[in-house]
Amino acid sequence: MKSEDIFASYKDNIMPTYNKTPVIFVKGKGSRLWDIRGKAYLDFFPGWGVGSVGHCHPKVMQGIRDQVGKLIFIPNNYYHPFQARLAEELVRWSFPGKVFFANSGAEANEGAIKLARKYGARSGKFEIITFQNAFHGRTLATLAATGQKKYQDGFLPMPEGFRQVSFNDTAAFRSALNDKTAAVMLELIQGEGGLNVATKDFVLEIRRVCDERKLLLIVDEVQTGIGRTGSMFCYQNYGITPDIMTLAKALGGGMPIGAMVAKREIADLLTPGMHASTFGGGPVVCKASLGVFKAIRQDKMLQNCLKMGEYFKDKLHSLKESSPLIKDVRGMGLMLGFELNLPGRQLVEKCLERGLLINCTHERVIRLMPALNISKSDIDKCLKIIEQSLKECS
Ligand SMILES: Cc1ncc(COP(=O)(O)O)c(C=O)c1O
């Protein structure tokens, strides 16, 4: 198919739900992508957070290749070895709990919302506190949890039972609590919402209140999980443990998977027939995900993430000193970015022309989330392109 035919086919046959960049990608390896014309790109936003181990990591590919020749799918009323092994891996890295496997972040969060409702139902509680500028997904319940008007417009009414308060605001959080509150749902770094990092005091206070009032703390690690911030899960940077953690994106190394991990004390509240997902935790995705953990461990990616994250952040701060267009630099590990004084779209386009993929969220915030095994020389290349491109922005 020629490029024009592919664009035309999308236009004719695919729902226009995405703002699309007119590039057709055909190959990926590590932090590089190649388009249909053979042009190479340095990918500093691989798969919107999916690509923690880079494109087509050999350990992920090996897991998939091994499995497709044996058994592609088996439903959840039977057993297979790799769902068991992946659940063990998740629990070993996180906290004593049990796992429910799904296919996406929104689905993992739906599961968490249902588990919180089931937990609260015993005492007539159902409300979940979420935070302004959150993003938890696009299903109706997760849109309600997300709470942002721009995503909800046209889809009202939203399901009830969510109360939103301002982020990093302990007083607002405390005043939102009532006798219907069952849980709190939190991103420790709001990715879509503009790379806003939760303060330690705020998170510790939420954990304290949840303990005191026996509320569930749900931490949405769909974007921050699987090594992104230098710890396997971001909550580990705060010295707390959630009651429920949700994962997706990087968990499958590019294969679609979502997971909810819940503490043992509450995990068995969901009994047979209450919740399900046909494809959740199938053998191929589980093998891919086991490959992700193997890659992170054997290639020492957490250590690299911390080291490169520090280097990258320092360099971004230096760039801020020399560029009046940069207002603020923020983030943790390799979930970094900067806020501009002007809309970021122009910068994204200029970087694309020079062969660098980055992202702009919340209109003015540039998000940089390279693979955890990124090298110093690739970070330097990225910075050089950003610096050159910034000079052309106005
Ligand atoms: C924090 C967070 N939660 C949930 C989601 C939804 O994930 P998915 O698109 O896989 O449904 C996202 C997606 O960007 C996210 O960043």
Show the helix and strand layout:
Elements (H helix, E strand, L loop, with lengths): L2 H11 L11 E5 L2 E4 L4 E4 L14 H11 L12 H13 L3 E6 L2 H17 L5 E5 L8 H7 L2 H4 L9 E4 L4 H7 L4 E6 L2 E2 L5 E2 L2 H14 L2 E5 L23 E4 L10 E6 H4 L15 H16 L2 H22 L3 E7 L2 E6 L4 H9 L2 E2 L1 E3 L3 E4 L7 H16 L3
Parallel strand pairs: 3-15, 5-6, 5-7, 7-10, 10-11
Antiparallel strand pairs: 1-2, 2-3, 4-12, 8-9, 11-12, 13-14, 14-17, 16-17
Helix pairs in contact: 2-10, 3-10, 11-13
The structure holds pyridoxal-5'-phosphate.
Percent in helix: 25-40%
* Alpha-carbon distance between the two ends: 38 Å
CATH-derived architecture of the domain at 59-298 = 3-Layer(aba) Sandwich
Q: For this structure, what is the CATH class of the domain at 59-298?
A: Alpha Beta
Secondary-structure element sequence? HEEEHHEHEHHEHEEEHEEEHHHEEHEEEH
Could you please say which CATH topology of the domain at 59-298 applies here? Answer: Aspartate Aminotransferase, domain 2
Q: What is the radius of gyration?
A: 21 Å
Fourth-tier CATH superfamily name of the domain at 59-298: Type I PLP-dependent aspartate aminotransferase-like (Major domain)
Percent strand equals: 15-25%
Low-pLDDT parts are none
Give the overall silhouette. Answer: globular
Average residue pLDDT: 98
Count of DSSP H/I helices: 13
What class would the helix/strand composition place it in?
A: alpha/beta
Distinct small molecules:
pyridoxal-5'-phosphate
- The count of β-strands is 17
Physical arrangement of strands within the biggest beta sheet: 4-12-11-10-7-5-6
